């Protein structure tokens, strides 16, 4: 067996036939992928369509119907047995088609949420799907990534990984590139191997792929780690419980009906079949499955709107969201950070250009030298050469070297793009505008050591060797934090002691930049020796300057914020920026209004949780906060019964994402760890997509209630018609086959069409629903009962007219037609519990029109075609009889319209 941890980097490179500097070629990677297969763990085989078909017959009521068919055949009622069997097969086929589509939707969803990997191929960094990795690939790791395959590390910078998924130990493990000589080292001691599925919690690293897919350590125990994510949603569970209760009630009603029928001298078999039909009519056994289908279809629509739902229950919760806690950078803004202004010790320099394009000039405003920064903004400017300015040149070099971002041109449209943090990318672009290409700088000033940025220090440091052979430490970070560790500043190439007056001037300039909505970083440096201790490196620094950059608000966000507020949802900004910058952006977008509170991270540190719970309802901006504060904010909001959506993109955001009701990760800038912790991933990192997802969540929940209302009211109508007829001494108005046909065939298609009904136009002008409300909250129960009673009543009226004026066969045919057609008419009523058909538009749901037309065609086929008339025991009707059926069936629409006009069908929150 090959123990890769025992091999040197050189041996690994030789055996994997790769190149540390350039990686594999794209052509070689393609060949290896064909040979080795995708980098995926084998999953349990999904159900085949045939297995899905068989599963449709496992329901208790379906089994009873099958037994009924056998009994019918045994007693010579062959046509009944055949019809029951055909109906069950049709119903099962429809179920398979729907379930197969749902499975496909969820599989596509899983594929979209699959992790990416950054690799080196053909000498270029590329972001590819992790499934496309092959042995020999060179993979780059950063904090927040999931390790996409087993890697033999050859370069590490303070790299730590969390390996609990393999070892059970949650404490991050320090990684190294050094060869390990130990024989049969346990996984936890293989410090030069990064294992697939483990999370990078700190630092950076590079590794050679040594195993993919089932050949990885994770793959070898994949059977033990198989996941079962298909947990029913809360609504599905409530519907299942409701179905069981309805089943119990139905059994009592069935027993009463059978006993009453037998006492009146009816045949036992007829009453047995009637009882079975009643049971099928009463229990909505397919509701949980229909909910899954509607949720899956809704999820597919949300994908098109840039929101990937990772867990189906999140769709239900979205509709109840009351607070959206959002990051500023990239979510509310465009995430195209651009350096606009630079402050050096004696002047301000403006920087031209937009976005990541490395083109733009540097301008000095005439008259602003020697600290006269208050001159009017319209003062004359003169262009300067940054390479001939010693202070500016040093600042730009330091900012580009103390930096892990890469400026690249993407393959799609050859536009400039950034791999890495956008803020760091802006610094790389600014240096490139001055003619300092990062690749060349890193060759001339090779990096010796790095101390990565973290949210506690709020800075990053690197040690680089200069062309002259000496070493410099470059540090960049939050201005207030950088100034704490500086004792001097540079002016015109001279190092000057940093006194209090100079310190105040720098902080004052930082405030002026912030008031322009600029994000500000400070840059400092110092010569160093061989002692690379962090506390020694980040002390006694020389301040070079401030860099102000802007990430302009997304144009569409202000409208989305307005929509939020109209919908009773409170947007809250959580940012690491200064309060002044945060307030300016928040006010521009409409998040912050005069009188709202702004809380800083420092205030949070000293604030008891009980006080935060009071303050959080009046606060719209949290500034200068770290990820650890997000969990406290979430808990404080939830303590006030708020349903919280929280955005995040970093490793440290994962706890808050998990604790929130809806964790929202960023698909572009987000780490793998944050995406794994989230319920929803935004593919465009846009706040507007969150609001759109909330609206879609509300619409999906509303549509689920629509078809529940439709199906249950129809079921009540069927039960009532049969129950009252038998109790009152009338003949049975419907025979079992007719009830089965209506319940299992004609109702199904309109119910599904209601699941994709367009949302009410004022859906986002209503307050969020209570997440704990029952299915029958508001007037739902009232609507089901009253509308069900009406359907049952008009079915009996039609039967009574036929029975009095014509004959029993005609009466049953009229009742059959009335029940079916009235339910199809009622499907249009179910589109809204508050608005009339005239307002919502009769033709605005084409799927419902098609479903009703198809179901009506099936019903007319049964009633008009002679071969089917015999099977369903119906008789040809005259024109006047059809007119009675049509008028009575259509009456359900004005009846419900009248109830809506009276305002008794809905209840405002």
How many strand units?
28
Which class best fits the helix and strand makeup?
Answer: alpha+beta
Main sheet: strands, sense, barrel: 11 strands, mixed
Radius of gyration: 35 Å
What oligomerization state is this entry in?
single chain
Residues in helix, %: 40-55%
Mean pLDDT: 85
Strand content: 15-25%
Q: Give the overall shape.
A: elongated
- Work out the helix count: 34
End-to-end C-alpha gap = 67 Å
Give the low-pLDDT segments: 223-230, 369-378
How is this structure best described in words?
- This protein is of the alpha+beta class.
- The protein is built from 34 helices and 28 strands.
- Strands 10, 11, 12, 13, 16, 17, 18, 19, 20, 21 and 22 form an 11-stranded mixed β-sheet that branches. Strands 8-28-27-26-9-23-25-24 form an 8-stranded mixed β-sheet, sandwiched between helices.
- The longest helix has 41 residues, at 687-727.
- Mean pLDDT is 85; it is low at 223-230 and 369-378.
Please describe the structure with a list of short key phrases separated by commas or semicolons.
909 residues, 8-stranded mixed beta sheet, 34 helices, 18% strand, elongated
Secondary structure layout plus pairing:
Layout: H1 9-16, H2 26-36, H3 49-55, H4 60-74, H5 78-112, E1 116-121, E2 124-129, E3 138-142, E4 150-162, H6 164-167, E5 173-174, E6 193-194, E7 199-211, H7 217-220, H8 234-263, H9 268-282, H10 287-304, E8 307-309, H11 313-318, E9 323-327, E10 338-344, E11 347-351, E12 362-365, E13 381-384, H12 390-401, E14 406-409, E15 416-419, H13 422-433, H14 438-444, E16 447-454, E17 459-465, E18 471-477, H15 479-484, E19 486-491, E20 494-497, H16 500-515, E21 519-528, H17 534-537, E22 541-550, H18 557-566, E23 570-574, H19 579-589, E24 597-600, H20 601-606, H21 609-615, E25 619-623, H22 627-639, E26 644-648, H23 654-659, E27 662-666, H24 672-677, E28 680-682, H25 687-727, H26 736-746, H27 748-754, H28 780-805, H29 808-829, H30 837-840, H31 846-864, H32 866-871, H33 879-890, H34 892-902
Parallel strand pairs: 9-23, 9-26, 19-22, 23-25, 24-25, 26-27, 27-28
Antiparallel strand pairs: 1-2, 1-3, 3-7, 4-5, 4-6, 4-7, 8-28, 10-11, 10-22, 11-12, 12-13, 14-15, 16-17, 17-18, 18-21, 19-20, 21-22
């Amino acid at each position: 067996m090959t123990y890769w941890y025992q091999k040197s980097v050189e041996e690994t490179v030789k055996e994997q036939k790769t190149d540390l500097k350039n990686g594999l070629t794209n052509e070689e990677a393609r060949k290896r992928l064909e040979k080795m297969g995708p980098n995926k763990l084998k999953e349990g085989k999904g159900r085949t369509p045939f297995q899905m078909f068989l599963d449709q017959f496992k329901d208790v009521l379906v089994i009873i119907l099958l037994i009924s068919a056998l009994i019918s055949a045994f007693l010579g009622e062959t046509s009944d047995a055949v019809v029951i069997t055909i109906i069950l097969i049709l119903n099962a086929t429809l179920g398979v088609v729907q379930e197969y589509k749902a499975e496909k939707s969820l599989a596509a969803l899983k594929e979209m949420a699959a992790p990416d990997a950054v690799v080196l191929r053909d000498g270029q960094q590329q972001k590819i799907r992790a499934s496309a990795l092959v042995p020999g690939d060179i993979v780059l790791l950063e904090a927040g990534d999931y390790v996409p395959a087993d890697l033999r590390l050859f370069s590490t910078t303070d790299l730590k990984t969390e390996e609990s998924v393999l070892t059970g130990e949650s404490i991050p493990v320090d990684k190294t590139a050094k060869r390990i000589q130990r024989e049969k080292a346990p996984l936890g001691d293989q410090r030069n191997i990064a294992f697939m599925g483990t999370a990078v919690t700190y630092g950076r690293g590079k590794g050679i792929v040594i195993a993919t897919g089932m050949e990885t350590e994770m793959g070898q125990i994949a059977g033990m780690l198989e996941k079962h994510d298909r947990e029913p949603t809360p609504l599905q569970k409530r519907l299942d419980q409701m179905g069981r209760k309805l089943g119990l009630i139905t059994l009592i009603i069935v027993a009463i009906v059978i006993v009453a029928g037998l006492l009146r001298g009816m045949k036992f078999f007829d009453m047995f079949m009637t009882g079975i039909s009643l049971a099928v009519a009463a229990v909505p056994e397919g509701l949980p499955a229909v909910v899954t289908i509607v949720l899956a279809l809704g999820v597919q629509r949300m994908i098109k709107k840039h929101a990937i739902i990772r867990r189906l229950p999140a769709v239900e919760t979205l509709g109840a969201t009351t607070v959206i806690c959002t990051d500023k950078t990239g979510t509310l803004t465009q995430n195209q950070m651009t350096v606009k202004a630079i402050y050096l010790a004696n002047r301000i320099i403006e920087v031209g250009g937009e976005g990541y394009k490395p083109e733009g000039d540097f301008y000095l405003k005439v008259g602003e030298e020697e600290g006269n920064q208050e001159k009017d903004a319209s003062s004359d400017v003169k262009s300067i050469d940054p390479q001939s300015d010693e202070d500016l040149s040093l600042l730009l070099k330091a900012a580009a070297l103390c930096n892990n971002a890469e400026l690249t041109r993407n393959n799609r449209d050859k536009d400039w793009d950034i791999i890495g943090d956008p803020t760091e990318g802006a610094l790389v672009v600014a240096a490139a505008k001055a003619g300092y290409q990062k690749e060349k700088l890193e060759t001339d000033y090779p990096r010796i050591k790095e101390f990565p940025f973290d949210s506690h220090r709020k800075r990053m440091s690197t040690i680089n060797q200069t062309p002259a052979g000496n070493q410099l430490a470059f540090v960049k970070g939050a201005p207030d934090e950088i100034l704490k560790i500086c004792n001097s500043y540079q002016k015109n190439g001279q190092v000057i002691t940093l006194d209090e007056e100079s310190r105040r001037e720098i902080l004052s300039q930082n405030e002026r930049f912030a008031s322009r909505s600029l994000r500000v970083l400070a840059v400092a440096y110092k010569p160093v020796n061989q002692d690379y201790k962090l506390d020694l490196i980040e002390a006694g620094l020389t301040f070079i300057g401030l860099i102000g950059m802007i990430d302009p608000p997304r144009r569409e966000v202000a409208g989305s914020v307005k929509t939020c507020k109209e919908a009773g949802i409170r947007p809250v900004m959580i940012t690491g920026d200064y309060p002044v910058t945060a307030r300016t952006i928040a006010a521009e977008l409409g998040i912050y209004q005069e009188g709202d509170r702004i809380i800083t991270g420092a205030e949070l540190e000293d604030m008891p949780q009980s006080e935060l719970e009071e303050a959080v309802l009046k606060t719209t901006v949290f500034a200068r906060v770290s990820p650890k504060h997000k969990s406290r904010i979430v808990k404080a909001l939830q303590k006030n019964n708020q349903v919280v959506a929280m955005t995040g993109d970093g490793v440290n955001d994962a706890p808050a994402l998990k604790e929130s009701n809806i964790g929202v990760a960023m698909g572009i800038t987000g780490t793998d760890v944050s995406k794994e912790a989230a319920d929803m991933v935004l593919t465009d990192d846009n706040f507007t997509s969150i609001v759109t997802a909330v609206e879609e969540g509300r619409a999906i929940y509303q549509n689920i209630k629509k078809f529940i209302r439709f199906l249950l009211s129809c079921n009540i109508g069927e039960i009532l018609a049969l129950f009252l007829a038998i109790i009152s001494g009338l003949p049975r108005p419907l025979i079992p086959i007719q009830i089965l046909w209506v319940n299992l065939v004609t109702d199904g298609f309109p119910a599904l069409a209601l699941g994709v009904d367009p949302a009410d136009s004022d859906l986002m002008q209503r307050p969020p629903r209570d997440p704990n409300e029952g299915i029958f909250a508001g007037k739902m129960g009232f609507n089901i009962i009253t509308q069900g009673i009406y359907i049952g009543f008009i079915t009996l009226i039609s039967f009574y007219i036929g029975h009095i004026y014509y004959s029993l066969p005609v009466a049953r045919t009229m009742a059959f037609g009335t029940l079916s057609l009235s339910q199809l008419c009622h499907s249009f009523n179910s589109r809204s519990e508050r608005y009339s058909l005239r307002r919502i538009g009769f033709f605005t749901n084409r799927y419902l029109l098609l479903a009703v037309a198809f179901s009506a065609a099936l019903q007319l086929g049964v009633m008009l075609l002679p071969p089917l008339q015999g099977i369903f025991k119906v008789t040809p009707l005259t024109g006047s009889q059809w007119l009675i059926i049509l008028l009575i069936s259509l009456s359900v629409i004005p009846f419900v319209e009248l109830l809506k006009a009276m305002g008794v069908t809905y209840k405002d929150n």
